[in-house]
Specification:
single chain, 248 residues, mainly alpha, globular
């Protein structure tokens, strides 16, 4: 007969394995529920907002020469690249070198503990950040583009990305590949989930926050993620957008 002490490691190991299996099942259920919500809501919103989307597309074309949509490669869940859609808010064919240089400088500043320059801002990165992502007086932005950005209406075409499964309604904003190349190691945890149209940072200060604070909120969301939290963030997003808090 085996002793009780000989059986304890087996029982303890089995308990740990059972707990891991339960956690995995819970994650699968949560992911399935979140995906179902994303599918239903994005399909409904695309159908309901179709006239508005068409009107904005026409207005963008009339406001300045070029396509109505702007497509850009972004980095999604598990570092998988995808093409993000948004309404064009800049003049067609403008250079993004200034944004690249500025944002990479900000990331390096965060890596070395330097404070960001809060007087310069840009939004090439699709509202992906803090005082850092908004260059005041950016001549690349069209008249209509400035309005679309302040109201976040430029993000509406990303509902198509959600429907395709490349994004979620709620999650971290998807960065540009050249930004990710300069990320410090602890920032990569934000890629454990799909990027979203809105997220915890959008309802917690938006561009009033620093880049490090934004990433910290993204990682907090990864740890706390649940259907209930997603619904709470979605419910808070519209009032924040309408208030204009942290937008520019």
């Amino acid at each position: 007969m085996r002793s009780l002490t000989a059986e304890r490691p087996l029982v303890a190991g089995q308990g740990a394995s059972d707990a891991q299996s339960a956690d995995a099942r819970a994650r699968r259920v949560r992911d399935a529920a979140s995906r179902a919500i994303d599918l239903v809501l994005s399909a409904i919103l695309l159908a309901l907002l179709a006239p508005l989307l068409a009107l904005i597309a026409l207005a963008v074309r009339l406001d300045s020469p070029g396509p109505a949509l702007y497509r850009q490669r972004r980095v999604g869940r598990r570092l998988q690249p995808f093409t993000l859609n948004k309404f064009r808010t800049m003049h067609d064919g403008v250079s993004h070198d200034a944004h690249r240089e500025f944002v990479l400088g900000l990331i390096e500043g965060e890596r070395h503990g330097r404070q960001p320059d809060r007087t310069r801002r840009t939004d090439d990165a699709g509202h992906a950040g803090a005082p850092l992502y908004k260059l005041s007086g950016d001549e690349r932005v069209t008249r209509l583009g400035a309005l679309l950005r302040r109201s976040s209406l430029d993000e509406l075409p990303q509902l198509w990305n959600v429907l395709r499964g490349e994004m979620a309604l709620v999650g971290p904003r998807p960065p540009i590949p050249y930004e990710v190349e300069h990320y410090p190691p602890h920032w990569f945890e934000r890629f454990a989930v799909k990027p979203g149209i809105t997220g915890l940072w959008q309802v917690s200060g938006r561009s009033e926050l620093t880049l490090e604070q934004m990433v910290a909120l993204d990682i907090e969301y990864v740890h706390r993620r649940s259907v209930r939290l997603d619904i709470t963030i979605l419910a808070c997003t519209l009032p924040v957008v309408l208030s204009g808090r942290g937008a520019s």
